[in-house]
Design goal:
This protein has 3 helices and 8 strands. The chain has 117 residues and is an alpha+beta fold.
């Protein structure tokens, strides 16, 4: 599995104020979308999320988002080394993702940019 990078996941109360800060910090405009009642802004290596506390509680359990070349390849590699895929692969606005539980208890999202046809 080829890992292309990681994204830090940050749950925030005030998305608009946080977007201004992180756009200024990175010099990169936010890419925004909604998912499951949560407003999301991707800015550089930061993924800001704001929404209902019940949704954020689940999202906080995921340590980081790991960009991979291909989610199917990541799925096979994770299974091979003893991780448990707990969700996905599923399509997202930017490609496909899955959520995996590592044997040490860590939870990570794996995402690719292979947008479904």
């Amino acid at each position: 599995m080829e890992i292309l990078g990681t994204t830090l996941r940050i749950c925030v109360d005030d998305l608009e104020a946080s977007v201004v800060f992180y756009e200024g910090l990175t010099g990169t405009p936010a890419l925004r979308f909604e998912r499951g009642g949560v407003s999301v802004a991707a800015i550089g290596c930061f993924l800001l999320m704001s929404g209902p506390e019940a949704e954020l509680e689940v999202l906080r359990k995921v340590s980081a988002t790991i960009a991979v070349k291909d989610v199917d390849e990541a799925h096979a590699a994770l299974n091979r080394v003893g991780a448990k895929v707990v969700a996905g692969p599923v399509p997202t606005p930017a490609g496909r993702n899955l959520i995996a539980l590592h044997p040490d208890g860590s939870v990570f999202e794996y995402v690719d940019r292979n947008v479904p046809a």
